[in-house]
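Entry 14. Ran structure prediction on the chain below.
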Amino acid sequence: MFAWGVLVFLALPVRRYDWMQQMDPSVTAPPDAGSDNGAMFALLLLAAIVISQAALIATAKSRRERILGIVVVVVAIALWASRHWR
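Output, structure tokens:
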């Protein structure tokens, strides 16, 4: 779940029209008007990652597994925050 979520975080653009300026720098990208479905999907994906890791932490038998689960949750939150925090 974590690996899939990170790939989706990296694949989804933060702003829909950034690709326009990458293709032709003389074109100005329009403001992002409308619904922010991408940000909502990313937030739901983050929640799924955190919930699945919390379940794994709760059932972990060793301290190393719990620490790894906490690290994975912190990395997912940091990645989400770096891309979607405004």
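The CA atoms of residues 39 and 61 lie 35 Å apart. Will compare against last week's run tomorrow.
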